[in-house]
Design a protein that fits this description.
By secondary structure, the protein is mainly alpha-helical. The chain has four helices and four strands, in the order ββαααββα. It has helices spanning about 40-50, 55-60, 65-80, 100-130; strands at about 30, 35-40, 85-90, 95-100. α1 (about 40-50) crosses α2 and α2 (about 55-60) packs across α3 (about 65-80).
């Protein structure tokens, strides 16, 4: 585990060996009006559609229903200036879905914001850890 010594003027105790390490998890959600334009789940769904070429396969891989996936895509398509996913109706040739070029730009921009937020928080986390107790609360917490 982390062992850090601060000058006495820091007013914070030393982190001891064996103390559980606190981890910061950043989650960015872009709110547009009353809708979540994109967040971690929607970004993962776009990535899965990009990889599978199918809403149903992407939903299955993520453990969600097709309807849920479709509603998430519909919300994204309503929030952004251009569609992020295009679909083709099933039939003899089969259907499918593909993330649009615009959707790829949205996903890339979102992933860069995630990375920047995580990097920013990470630089401050060592200092923040020093403010936590020696062990996390036991049992269910709210």
């Amino acid at each position: 585990m982390l062992a850090t010594t601060l000058p006495p003027s820091a007013g914070v105790r030393k982190i001891e060996q064996g103390v559980p390490r606190a981890v910061a998890r950043t989650r960015i959600r872009v709110v547009f009006g009353d809708a979540f334009a994109i967040g971690p789940g929607k970004a993962d769904l776009l990535q899965a559609i990009s990889e599978t070429g199918s809403i149903s396969a992407a939903a299955r891989n993520m453990g969600m229903s097709y309807r849920r996936a479709w509603l998430l895509i519909d919300t994204m398509n309503q929030c952004f200036r251009e569609p992020v996913v295009n679909t083709a109706t099933g039939g003899k040739g089969g259907g499918g879905a593909q993330i649009t070029r615009f959707g790829k730009d949205v996903l890339t921009c979102y992933r860069k914001m995630e990375a920047a937020a995580a990097a920013s928080v990470s630089t401050r986390m060592d200092r923040f850890r020093l403010l936590l107790r020696k062990s996390p609360p036991a049992g269910k917490t709210y």
